[in-house]
Amino acid sequence: MRRLLALSFAAATALAFISGCTPQPASKPPVASGLDAMFERDKLIIVSDDGARHSFDVYLATDREQQRRGLMFVRDLPETTGMLFVYDDDAVRSMWMKNTYISLDIVFARADGTVSSVLHDTEPLSLSSLRAIEPVRLVLELNAGVARRLHIGTSSRLIREPTAD
């Protein structure tokens, strides 16, 4: 009888403890190490070739120093995270993979967000020049394979949704 009473008390105590726990607030999306100190972040919606809408958290590379740094030294990038290079003018942009340890898809887009061209599965650490096929204002870097999987191509569009501070 004592054993049954002790077990009942333990079960009641555990139930009271569990029911009294408050839920934890939702955590922020994971971040690529070291980037938060140097880059602001925004939301980016990509309307893909098939009309589907995909939401990404993007780091913004808006000045020369940020654009030169890019995703160098990053070894892991969350699936729905990327880097958006925003330039002040249209030009034939060229990227490289120096000190970039992960393979990327590179999306070149015009000032209105329409996609000009996409390079798939870039080679990490390569010094080869990866160029847009025409003058563009925006360059988006995503994890390799994302552009194909989400049908991001020349009928796609990038839409920036600035986050509130």
- State the end-to-end distance: 61 Å
Q: What is the architecture at the second tier of CATH?
A: Sandwich
Q: How many domains, as an integer?
A: 1
CATH topology: Jelly Rolls
Q: What proportion of the residues is helical, as a percent range?
A: 10-25%
Summarize model confidence as the mean pLDDT. Answer: 87
- In what order do the strands lie side by side in the largest sheet? 6-5-8-3-2-1-9
Biggest beta sheet attributes? 7 strands, mixed
Summing up helix and strand content along with how strands pair, one would put the structural category as: alpha+beta
Order of helices and strands: HEEHEEEEEEHE
| Strands, total number | 9
Radius of gyration, Cα only, in angstroms? 22 Å
> Regarding CATH, which class?
Mainly Beta
Uncertain segments of ≥5 residues (pLDDT<50)? 15-31
Q: Which superfamily, in CATH terms, is the homologous superfamily?
A: Protein of unknown function DUF192
- Distinct helical segment count: 3
CA-based shape? globular
Which band does the percent of strand residues land in? 25-35%
